[in-house]
Amino acid sequence: MYQPEVNSPAFPDLIGIVDLDALAMWRQRLKEEERIAKERIDEVDSLIINAIVANTGSLPEEGTASQKTDKFKISVTTKLTRALDYEAYRAVEEGIPESVRCIDLEPKINPKKLRAIDLVKPGFSAQFITTKASKPTVKVEALA
Questions:
Q1: What is the pLDDT of residue 1?
Q2: Phi, psi of 99 (to 5 degrees)
Q3: Cβ pair 62, 78 in contact under 8 A
Q4: What is the pLDDT of residues 86-123, one digit of tens each?
């Protein structure tokens, strides 16, 4: 079970508060501050990218461009997002030499089937899957 940090130095006034409305209001306010901060960070990042392009001429299509100032080393990393059309790949796969085939098929857990097998045979998957709890997520929706 998730154990929150009890003595939060950031919000000493919140220690011991159990009023969910008060806590939810605090969370809503902080989420709005976070949203505004993210927008401002995106704006500054855009300015940084423009400055590095102005100084270096361009950014790599995929890779990192770095620049040092008196106080900072600033890096901009560019990536390409790729999506696989597996059916199209399968149609040409035989014509690609084995040594340069560029698609790796990696095993992936199917949670629905995992729960089904553990329902039929409890604990079976523990032989080959390690499970640990993740931090819970919180969603707060304001009511009218």
A1: 45
A2: -70, -20
A3: yes
A4: 999 999 999 999 999 899 888 899 999 999 999 999 99
Whole-prediction pTM: 0.65
Environment class of 114 (CB within 10 Å of its CB; exposed 0-12, middle 13-18, buried 19+): middle
Domain boundaries, the chain: 12-127
Query: Strand pairing of 63-68 and 73-78?
Result: antiparallel
Query: How many helices, marked H, and strands, marked E, lie in the chain?
Result: 3, 2
- Residues 88 and 84: their CA atoms lie apart, in Å, by 8
CA 123 vs CA 96, 108, 110, 126: distances in Å: 42, 19, 16, 5
Question: Which residue blocks in the chain are alpha helix, DSSP H?
Answer: 20-56, 86-92, 111-120
- Name the token pair of 74: 């600033």
